[in-house]
Amino acid sequence: MLFYVTLALKNLRRHGKRTLITASAIAIGLAAFLFIDSMLQGADQQSQQNLIRYETGAMRVYTPQGAADRNRLSLKTPIEDPGPVLERLASLGMEAAGRISLAGEISVIDADSGDSLDQLARVVAVDAEKDAAVFNRNALSIEGRWMVRGSHEAVVGRWLAQDLRLKPGSELTLNSRTRSGSYQVIDLIVSGIIDCPNPTINRGTVFVDLDTAAAER
Q1: Is 130 in contact with 97 (CB distance < 8 Å)?
Q2: How far apart are CA 180 and CA 216, in angstroms?
Q3: Burial readout 156-168 (b: 16 or more C-beta within 10 A, e: otherwise)
Q4: Band of pLDDT at residue 71, cut at 50, 70 and 90
Q5: For a pLDDT cut of 90, what percent of the chain falls above it?
Q6: pLDDT band at residue 206 using 50, 70 and 90 as cut-offs
Q7: 10 Å Cβ neighbour count for 174?
Q8: How far apart are CA 96 and CA 79, in angstroms?
Q9: Which residues are registered as beta bridge partners of 104?
Q10: Which long-range contacts (CB under 8 A, 24 or more apart) does 14-21 make?
């Protein structure tokens, strides 16, 4: 065994320049591979954290029918009494807050031209106080302020606000369907515009107060 090691070292020294070039190429290739692999793994992990923090949460609780229809953003199968569910999660040491997601259309009258601007959006009704436990607002840039509980206010994603020419204090109309399928119209005041690390939030999400949504549905 020692003979082969000695022979290998002699061969490496005999062609020192070629050995150096080969070793350098291998080292550069390995370093590039480790850099790219680490970067991709980091991006994947960040994407998963971003999704959990701002869209899905670590866990969601539905009724059986609600789980089947969750992608339709329907109000027909909510948890009628979420209180016991939230208490059970709290007893297990889990931070939780009630939410309602629905599809809606945002309508705005442009102050300059008088034209009506309309756009479909995902409307998320949240508990204005408790939702901070599950929605990381510390990483958000907010122009204006977060909504106040019980108020007819809305917080709008930045890109959606730009498309509709909204700013804090602007008025908007939310058109959606109730649980029975009839149309409803809610007038809201924009209390804040958020710039979120999650592009889905910026592009087409409106947050409203849970009490307001529950009263209207």
Answers
A1: yes
A2: 12
A3: bbbbbbebbebeb
A4: low
A5: 18
A6: very high
A7: 23
A8: 14
A9: 121
A10: none
pLDDT for 148 beyond 70: yes
Distance CA(107)–CA(28), nearest Å, equals 56
- β-partners of residue 209 are 126
- Place 188 in a pLDDT band, splitting at 50, 70 and 90: very high
- The H or E element spanning position 141 is strand 141-144
Residue 15, token pair as written in the block: 């062609």
What's residue 70's pLDDT? 67
Helices 2-14 and 16-51: crossing angle, nearest 10°?
100
Per-residue b or e along 182-213, where b marks 16 or more CB atoms closer than 10 Å to that residue's CB: eeeebebebbbbbebebeebbebbbbbbbebb
Task: Compute the distance between CA of residue 153 and CA of residue 37 in angstroms, rounded to an integer.
Answer: 45
Kindly give the residue spans of alpha helices, DSSP state H, lying in 52-153: 64-68, 83-91
